[in-house]
Structure prediction request, 618 residues.
Amino acid sequence: MRYLREKLSDEQFKKLEKLKNDELMCFLEKYIAVCSPSSVFVVTDSEEDALYVRNKAIIEREEKLLTMPGHTVHFDNYYDQARDKEHTYVLTEDGKKLPYIKTMDREKGLREIHEILLDIMEGKEMYILFFSLGPKDSPFMLPAVQITDSPYVAHSELMLYRRAYDEFVKNPDMEFLKFVHAEGKLDERRTSKNLDKRRIMIDLEDNIAFAVNTQYAGNTIGLKKPAFRLTINKALKEGWLSEHMFLMGVNGPDGRVSYFTGAFPSMCGKTSTCMVVGERLVGDDLSFIRDIDGEARAVNVEYGIFGIIQGVNKKDDPYIWEVLHSPYEIIFSNVLVHEGKPYWNDMGEEIPCEGENHRGKWWCGKKDEDGNEIPPSHKNARFTARLKYFPNLDAEALDAKNGVKLAGIIYGGRDSDTWPPVCEAFNWEHGVVMKGASIESETTAATLGKEGVRKYNVMSILDFLSVHIGDYLDNYLKFGKQLRSHPKIFAVNYFLRDKDGNWLNSKLDKKIWLKWMDLRVHGEAGTIETPIGYLPKYEDLARLFKEVFNKEYTKEDYEKQFTIRVPELLSKIGRIRKIYWDMGDVPEEVFRELDAEEKRLLDARKKHGDYISPYSFY
Ligand code: SPV
Ligand code: MN
Prediction:
């Protein structure tokens, strides 16, 4: 405490003095000594402190004011526009390898990161912030402390998470997660410039994550993806689930609500599903799921949205559109700014041919040094906003201390030719293995490399799996076994096409699949039993299309959409089996489910051929 009293102003020290947590004081003392900031600001839960941070982001030019009150814009370096997977390491003993993600020997990693951190905050202010992942004072709460030298990062977190300085005052002994971020030297545009020394390191042993020489929120907002890697590990040890999932409520008949979580790889409909018009938003990215008295109950880990802005338009995204056009506190990042107004790609409005964007001064046709034309906004441009601004928010569910009872879990991917639009798994094991653990998603023009290549992405969590996939699946399977009542598991596919490449569904159809799931949960819709699970009956879907959209749904559409495509399904089983076979150390249920589904498909093919009409199962 003597060291901290010396380093902090009286006013700031007084805020720390109230927190009688030894571990916390050691942590702060250590990183103040290592990073050598010129001043330290302790952010309590007060509005005054939040305002101080927001003003600092403007004064330091990490954000600029836009015309609409409350709106600001932040730019990241042109080469710092997304999560840096190449330089993100999970630290393991002796550098033990994990499937699909990078690891580094713990001692080596800690040495490297501390060398980079040494004196990195010289001449800068350090912000110390306190939050809770999940609702405060609840079985889900995970307290966290963030250190950062970026007022933009601090400001973002104050919008995205539940402030919890008060919890630290009340509970001096509580455990917490720790995050250290340093943006490093900035260039004249106030973006991180030492990108060659950009590192994100995750230390599971001490529950601490580091991010240096980067500003992009997916790297730097400790409570988001760095924390996710820590909580996946914690959940595995403690027997619960920390998932890359939205959380939403679907309105059923007579005012009932069924809650669903959903996992989709990026650009596959995750946000658009939880934002379906007329339903209830709880969260768009991260959920904790716990067994409470034999029920699977879920919360949104976060309190705000860091959402993709490209393609957001008035017609398809009315809720987001409304929020982005209201005088709320919102940070736009990496959009185009012209005369104080933000613009983004595919917004459905005319975009000016000049302005400032993630590359600096911009004009139509401008190219970067590699000769690539720079679009008005970056494809990963985003907005940061509090959930409470959204008119479709289910505020009670967001704050429910015991979470909401999960009626179902939805898995989806971008798949042009294999899965039907919606399918219900036979049971928990079948769903975990054949739906969640079998997610594949086709690459799009938006990613580098060839289009249409299928990428395996277990539970859409692959980028973050800080534990072995086998152990992760084992925990998932066990979690379900211990429950008194299971959430149902569903798979959806919004991207199915016919042989000529035409889409088989409209963007709006996802609402029907959600309504069908609600009926299924309550035993109010029938099914047909197929080799891959339960499919909807034509009669139920036709009724829903009529009720919800006043639309005729034809038998021909149903037949095309729900045909069982045996050759494609068998190939998929072959690919997934090989992935798990090569990986090793996966639960035997994985192979049991794959083998059983393969057998069901082969038997069905003998009877009905390669492409089986859903009517064959009536
Ligand atoms: C994702 O990519 O899954 C996101 C955005 O939610 S980021 O914060 O970059 O992870
Ligand atoms: Mn995400």
Q: What stands out?
A: Residues 543 and 580 are 41 Å apart (CA to CA). Residues 588-608 form the longest helix (21 residues). The mean pLDDT is 97. The chain has 19 helices and 33 strands.
